[in-house]
Amino acid sequence: MSDSDAVSLPDVHATAIIITTAVGLVLATIALALRIYVRLWINRFFGYDDWALLTSYAGLVALSGLQIAYGETVEGDGIITSYDKITLITEWHTFVYAVHQGLLKVALGSFYLRVLQEPWQRRLVIVSTTIFFAYNIGIGLVLLFQCGNPEDVESTNCLPNHPLVVLIYIQAGFNVAMDWFLTLLPISIFLKIQMSTSARMSIGLLMGLGVMASAFSIARIPFLFTSDGDGYEGYAILTRLMILSYYENCLAQIGIAAVALRPLFRKMRNALGDPDLSLQHRMSGQYDYAMRPRAKSRDESKS
């Protein structure tokens, strides 16, 4: 007998959660694998930004595992039967999401530290990223232990609900602000630094994916608060929140990995005998996606 025989339950689309999560993880894994190939076998260099991206990928794997476990549990056992288990999964899901958000911003900030030339820009990235990371770790821990031991899902000795909701909305707003800050930051690079068309395309790709990730960040805000008053209908809302939150992070993960793939595309063009592939492109060094200030010409130097 299913749960719905006694109680009218919403369709939480557990299968959709599993499938969309699996697809996102596969795409993120392919993007990371290609980046590692480029860094180790083409550039022959593995920097701190690559380690930061690997760390954030571990966070995505953990988030994916929790999300798939949630979908499989709901699909197999139902909401009522597995209430305690899925409550515990969602608590850890919230924590891992917050941590992964912080790790993503660290990975993106590490990329910009290789690109930005101005000291004030670098300091701004370091300070904003550090504050965002610390806030996300803090709120993740608060939400995880809001009722003491996370495994004691029946505990009623919890922190007041209203302050927690405020903290969650602050985190969401802070996240959107950071997305736009780190997305729009390359505009100064476009205006002040000379770069090839392919380099502009790489930065443009990152900006485009950043805008998409920000769109997911904004879209998930209306679903942040699923109160006890929603009853079992809250689980239908939770499905939307999970999928939006996951692809917000997944797109950012893919975008950061993809921005370093230009050497692979050049190698493919070279293998195909592209006559437009210049010697300058073939001889570029290990810091391939780092842009340098435009040097003055000889005539400009004399003037």
TrEMBL record:
Please provide the record's keywords in A-Z order: Membrane, Transmembrane, Transmembrane helix
Q: Which InterPro entries match?
A: Rhodopsin_dom_fungi, SAT4-like
Q: Name one Pfam family in it.
A: Fung_rhodopsin
- Keyword Glycoprotein recorded: no
Naming one, the record's GO cellular component terms include: membrane
Q: Which residues form the Rhodopsin domain?
A: 34-267
Q: How does it sit in the membrane?
A: Multi-pass membrane protein
Predominant localisation class: membrane
Annotated localization = Membrane
Report TM segments: 12-38, 125-146, 166-191, 203-225, 237-261
> What highest taxon heads this organism's lineage?
Eukaryota
Q: Which family does it belong to?
A: Belongs to the SAT4 family.
Q: What is this protein called?
A: Rhodopsin domain-containing protein
Q: What organism is this sequence from?
A: Myriangium duriaei CBS 260.36
